[in-house]
Design goal:
elongated, Rossmann fold, GMP Synthetase, Chain A, domain 3, 3 domains, six-stranded mixed β-sheet, alpha/beta, 31% helix
Length: 460
């Protein structure tokens, strides 16, 4: 059973809390065994709750990372960060209070400890940054917090983690790891394009932070949900800016997480601010989606801000003209579904769900060999294949092969004669017939190899 936050209710839930810059995200990554949370030597990097499945000696549990308590960085997000922390504490069966063993006991550590006692949380004290050669003299100060001497660990070097998990997980039940295969959907675009609002509107609650301040989301936040009955995980990402406008090393890393989210997703939703339209950033993100060969849906967000009034025919004409202009700028994403969306008015949700569900299904669509070859034959009759040096391309046979997206293996006389324009033309015909909207199509071209004493392509 999964609650709206993606937390499996039958498993232990461990929340990591503490003041800023004590190494909570580093500990989160170390326990998960993957670099999920963004780690940077600056207070306040983590803002949203990050949720991930983890496992210790056959005992699965849910791990949550949280933003630092008590940070005042002038962003106006302190209250939102604290709300996310409180939600994590309320859901947790065990809270790891992380402190900095190098700096020693701080006033903020005491305030966080008081907050946990008021909440009645089951707390385990974790003294981090006890790296090789570190003095243990200051670690004893943390006993004043009232949670015992604490577990000394070094999240950076992986020291003390096994002992920590043994201490908190001894009573957890062992069970067979059962994974529900979820389709990962990356929501990408420029900062403040309405990506987090889109995710929140879909799941029906404020699961990720929303603020007019551009760059509120800093990490890639995974949120479990459903679309048309299909289990999915939304990956809400930090926005990508033009490189010439990025001077902060942290923001450079944040931008890199967008590319990483696209690489690990099954489908991407490109959020386009209806007021800003398609610019260089949107084209760059679309290029990353195309390069990664991921199905895509374009969500034009904040549509309530630009919708035209007046007669219905005038409104339809405005929408059609807007979509045509958008498609011209994103011409390299063939037949991508475009959905006009408003998180505020919750319009376009159903259409977005249908477009995403169609893209998910298209990833595993089976192309009948007979029909595929008929489509290619008709396409070649309409438009002759390219020729070079007096030789014309001939396509003998094509069949679908296994791949993460629909992949066609075609046998030809000379693969070098195939060019991108003609491949794009064939792809458009195949997509039209098989209704592969928004899904990339991969081609593999091979020269014809004859079997000894036989004819035709060699079976692969």
């Amino acid at each position: 059973m999964v609650n709206p936050d993606g937390v499996k209710s039958h498993r232990p839930v461990v929340a990591i809390v503490g003041r800023p810059n004590v190494g909570k995200s580093a500990l989160f990554n170390r326990i998960c065994g993957k670099k999920i949370a963004l780690v940077f030597d600056r207070p306040g990097v983590t803002r949203d709750r990050l949720v991930a499945d983890a496992n210790w000696e056959g005992r699965p549990f849910t791990l949550m990372d949280t933003g630092g308590l008590g940070l005042e960085d002038g962003s106006g997000l302190e209250e939102a960060v604290e709300r996310e922390v409180d939600l994590a504490i309320a859901a947790a069966t065990r809270v790891l209070l992380v402190v900095d063993g190098k700096e020693g006991l701080q006033v903020l550590d005491t305030e966080v400890a008081k907050r946990l006692r008021r909440a009645g949380a089951a707390v385990t004290l974790v003294v981090n940054k006890m790296d090789p050669g570190s003095s243990a003299s200051r670690a004893g100060e943390f006993a004043k917090l009232g949670f015992g001497p604490g577990h000394p660990v070094s999240a950076e070097h992986g020291l003390g983690i096994e002992s920590l998990l043994e201490g908190i997980g001894a009573g957890w039940p062992q069970e067979e790891m059962v994974r529900t295969e979820r389709t990962r959907i990356a929501v990408v675009g420029r900062p403040n394009a309405g990506k987090s609002s889109l995710v929140n509107a879909w799941i029906g609650e404020a699961r990720t932070m929303v603020n007019p301040l551009a760059g509120t989301t800093r990490d890639a936040v995974d949120v479990d949900s459903e679309i048309c009955g299909l289990p999915v995980t939304f990956i809400d990402t930090a926005g990508l800016r033009q490189r010439r406008r990025v001077h902060d090393p942290l923001e450079q890393i944040m931008g890199g997480r967008t590319a990483h989210a696209i690489d690990r997703c099954h489908l991407a939703i490109l959020a386009v601010d209806a007021v800003e339209g398609v610019g260089l950033v949107e084209k760059k993100v679309a290029g990353l989606i195309q390069k990664a060969r991921r199905p895509c849906v374009v969500a034009v967000t904040k549509w309530d801000l630009v919708r035209q009034g007046g007669a219905e025919t005038r409104a339809r004409k405005f929408l059609a003209n807007y979509e045509e202009a958008l498609r011209q700028k994103l011409f390299f994403l063939p037949e991508v579904p475009v959905v006009f969306f408003s998180s505020l008015q919750r319009t376009g949700l159903e259409r977005l769900g249908e477009a995403v569900a169609e893209g998910i299904r298209n990833r595993s669509l089976k192309l009948g060999t007979g029909e595929l070859n008929r489509v290619l034959a008709q396409a070649m009759e309409r438009k002759a294949p390219p020729a070079k040096g007096g030789k014309r391309l001939r396509i003998y046979y094509a069949t679908q092969v296994d791949g993460p997206i629909p992949t066609v293996l075609g046998f030809v006389n000379q693969p070098a004669l195939m060019n991108q324009d003609y491949e794009r033309y064939l792809g458009a015909r195949v997509r039209e017939v098989f209704r592969l909207k928004g899904s990339p199509l991969r081609w593999i071209w091979r020269g014809r190899e004859k079997q000894p004493g036989g004819r035709g392509p060699k079976k692969s």
